[in-house]
Amino acid sequence: MSIIERLVQQGHSVTVFNRGITAGDLPDEVERLFGDRSNPRELQKAFRNRTFDAVVDTTLYTGADTGPTIDALKDKTGHYIFISTGQVYLIRTGVERPFREEDYDGEVMPAPLQTNVSDYKNWLYGKDKRDAEDLLFQAWKQRRFPVTTLRLPMVNSERDHFGRILGYVRRIEDGGHILIPEGNGLPLRHVYGDDVARAIVSLIESGRGKGQALNLSQDETVSLEDFLTRVAQILSAKLKIVRLPRAKLESDGLLPSCSPFSDPWMSALDNSRSKMEFGIRYTPLQRYLQTIVLHYKNNSPLIPEGYKTRPQELRLAAELS
């Protein structure tokens, strides 16, 4: 269930602000405001003479957009919840997984060369989110702007517009091999989208967490092979894996499409504070994974964008067999 659906179900009045470019399947009772958040004038116009008990910001990505956002919402909201990322830890030096909230402070690694496109884009994403967080917490300290930052790892959901689990499902269903990089790879410690929505609604209704950053994450840490084995078992299918050098998969243009959970820029977060201080609980991996996989098996004919490389993957696997 999405944040909007859960809020409406709980009896809250919900307003959505966006550009109105992407079609949205929203409940009839949801009000829509239109504008470009990167344009300070449009922000000010949209929120003029309006106040909100809480604002959930899912599309703030840079420090440049943070100041205008604070200016547009100052004295207009009782709680501002910023959706950040575990990537703010990945660009730190000297910290180990799973990352804790206190690992945020410290030295940030220098930017990779821009010629290394993937590493640079991922570093910049983490740096931009850190810039936004720094400005928001500065506003909290200086004028009590009521911010809570939620740091998320990769979010698994039936609604994932990247179709990451869906891509694995379709590959297992077609009976061919899944290509993954050699080596153990990073351990997976993601979070279920519905758990994120529940946590957000809980924070809104309780008013807790202002001036704080909070990691949200599932409890389990598993290997990619364990994860894929679970998916195959849910599908009652056989799992076939071929391991190849990462450099080969990258040079052939197959990563991240062939295995998005082999991304080296994938965080793992310690969720202890969220459980101990806020009572947040997380759906067991096996339970939510079954929900997602069966949804794709039974309800979705969609083929994800990343599946377009599948013929090339199958040809490569056949050459190696």
- Described by the principal axes of the CA atoms, the overall outline is globular
Q: What ranges have pLDDT less than 50 throughout 5 or more consecutive residues? A: none
Order of SSEs:
HEEHEHEHHEEHEEHEHEHHHH
| Biggest beta sheet attributes | 4 strands, parallel
Distance between the termini: 42 Å
Q: Beta-sheet strand percentage?
A: 5-15%
Radius of gyration: 21 Å
Give the integer mean of the pLDDT values. 95
Instruction: Give a count of the beta strands, DSSP E runs of length 2 or more.
Output: 10
**Percent range for helical residues?**
25-40%
Strands in their spatial order, largest beta sheet: 3-4-5-9
Structural class: alpha/beta
Brief write-up:
With 321 residues, the protein is α/β, with parallel strands linked by helices. Helix content is 40%, strand content 12%.
Characterise the protein shown here.
- The protein is α/β, with parallel strands linked by helices and 321 residues long.
- The protein is built from twelve helices and ten strands.
- It has a four-stranded parallel beta sheet with strand order 3-4-5-9. A two-stranded parallel ribbon has the order 1-2. A two-stranded parallel ribbon has the order 6-8.
- α3 (66-73) links the parallel β3 (55-57) and β4 (80-85).
